[in-house]
């Protein structure tokens, strides 16, 4: 499966290393694979480096040693055009949905910004925006609102729907429900399941909640004391 997957191979991350210091080891020799249409869960205590590992997988941060492979291609060996494609195909959904939107801009403007980056013709903005709203299950009126006027659940559904405009193959889900009420958490998890079934999207799900991990994941690992223990 390595040739179609997103794979971590013996990743290690150390902060503050140098001539006079060995630095702090966040995680060491971590390996796992995320397959299309499947979820790999990553759980463990707070402060163990789960979010850092997620950013490394998404290409937002570099590992100290080890490699990330996307469909068999080494991330650090990619040409510029390949890296641009990778950043579009491997997205990250953060814990706090308010971080996904500019508080000074209305929701509609935030969606239009993504469409502009994708070079979607302006004549198709309306249909693409409608697509986002349908996926999020929200009315058109939210487009004229600011992020502060919406609930956390509404913002998280919009954040995921906007990510889907990029047609990602993999999404790093960094504690996507921990900032939400329990009833809203269930809505987001079922939305993620639905998206995965329809689009064959692979997820790296980061959570400290074992119930969420077990509900969502095909396999998972526990990151603790810098080591990852895989549990099939």
UniProtKB/TrEMBL annotation:
Residues 6-231 form the ABC transporter domain. The keyword Methyltransferase does not apply. Transmembrane segments: none annotated. One of its GO terms (molecular function) is ATP binding. Keywords: ATP-binding, Nucleotide-binding, Transport. Coiled coil: none annotated. SMART domains: AAA. GO terms for biological process: transmembrane transport. The keyword Ribonucleoprotein does not apply. Pfam families: ABC_tran. Belongs to the ABC transporter superfamily. PANTHER family: D,D-DIPEPTIDE TRANSPORT ATP-BINDING PROTEIN DDPF-RELATED, TRANSPORT ATP-BINDING PROTEIN. This is Oligopeptide transport ATP-binding protein OppF. It comes from Methanosarcina horonobensis HB-1 = JCM 15518.
């Amino acid at each position: 499966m390595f040739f179609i997957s997103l794979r971590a191979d013996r990743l290690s991350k150390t902060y503050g290393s140098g001539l006079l210091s060995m630095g702090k080891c966040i995680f060491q020799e971590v390996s796992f694979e995320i397959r299309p249409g499947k979820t790999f869960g990553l759980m463990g205590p707070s402060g163990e480096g789960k979010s850092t590992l997620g950013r490394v997988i998404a290409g937002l941060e570099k590992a100290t040693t080890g490699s990330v492979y996307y469909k068999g291609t080494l991330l650090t060996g990619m040409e510029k055009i390949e890296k641009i494609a990778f950043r579009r195909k491997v997205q990250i959904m953060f814990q706090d949905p308010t971080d996904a939107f500019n508080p000074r801009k209305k929701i509609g403007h935030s969606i239009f910004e993504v469409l502009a980056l994708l070079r979607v013709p302006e004549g198709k903005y309306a249909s693409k925006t409608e697509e986002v709203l349908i996926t999020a299950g929200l009315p058109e009126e939210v487009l004229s609102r600011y992020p502060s006027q919406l609930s956390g659940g509404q913002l998280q559904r919009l954040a995921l729907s906007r990510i889907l405009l990029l047609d990602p193959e993999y999404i790093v889900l960094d504690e996507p429900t921990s900032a939400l009420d329990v009833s809203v958490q269930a809505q987001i998890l079922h939305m993620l399941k639905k998206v995965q079934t329809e689009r064959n999207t692979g997820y790296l799900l980061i959570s400290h909640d074992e119930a969420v991990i077990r509900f969502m994941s095909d396999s998972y690992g526990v990151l603790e004391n810098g080591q990852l223990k895989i549990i099939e």
